[in-house]
Amino acid sequence: MKILLIALGALSFAIGTIAIWIPGLPTTGFYVLTAILWSKSSKKLDSWLHNNKYYQKYVDEAVFDRQLSLKGRALIYLVTAAMMAIPFFKTDMVWLKWILPLTSLTQIISMESYYRGFLWRNGIPFTKTKTRELFK
Question: 68 pLDDT exceeds 70?
Answer without folding.
Answer: yes
